[in-house]
Write a structure and sequence with these properties.
The protein is mainly β. The protein has two helices and 19 strands. The strands form five sheets. Strands 1, 3, 5, 6, 8, 10 and 11 form a seven-stranded mixed β-sheet that branches. The protein has a four-stranded antiparallel β-sheet with strand order 2-4-9-7, with no helix packed on it.
Amino acid sequence: MAVAMAVGMAASVYAMRVSPMIVEMTTTGSSSTARVEVQNLNAGRLPFETRITKLTFNEYGVPTETPADGDFLVFPPQGMLPQGARQVIRLQWVGTPDIPTSQAYYLSVNQLPIPAEPGAAPQSANVQVVYHMKALIVVAPTGARPDVTVTSVKQIDYQPEPAKAGDPPPPKVPGLEVTMKNNGRRHMMMSAAKWLIDGKAPDGRPVRLTVTQEDLMRGIGSGYIAGGGAVRIYRFPIPQAFGPGPITVKFAQ
């Protein structure tokens, strides 16, 4: 029989492209609508459907999803793309306009299995790989602002991920664990800012490390932190270890 296999986002670029991967909206005004484009990179047709799930994150950024299709109008909710074709998916917020703080969602674009053509090989030999991609959609109250503070910074031994699944873990490297709290009503993407980290080297001389957006995207992804008093703990590698003494983190554009 046909077999469907869910494949992670890293591999899904071979089947389809979804852009942008992060969308920020507001509950009212022109920003209460958004557009996401799907492109078929398959050699054949790409049937797809969309789903919306609401996200809550724990302090380490691990999400929990619940169905929330009723919070948006999505058009088209499904489609069929020929090879190389593109489709713009339009999102319209239809949830309450007075949400207390930002709300995060996934827009999932799910490839659907294609039925075997008449006269094709028996289904027992037919294996289909279906792909799923998720775009982060964040809806903020109109006029809301973030209020993020750093509450803790400490040096850690950071464990990088293996290059491939099944490989042994590489050696640990110097890293930081930074805890933040957002008392504002609006979320913030912490990887959008440049982080300036000040401390002292093991020999006592002052050291400033600059962590760029590209570095942060590799270490913490978007760095999303919700509002309303949400707490996030970020862990990422740094190029050198600090010595004893306080470590401070500031942000710049």
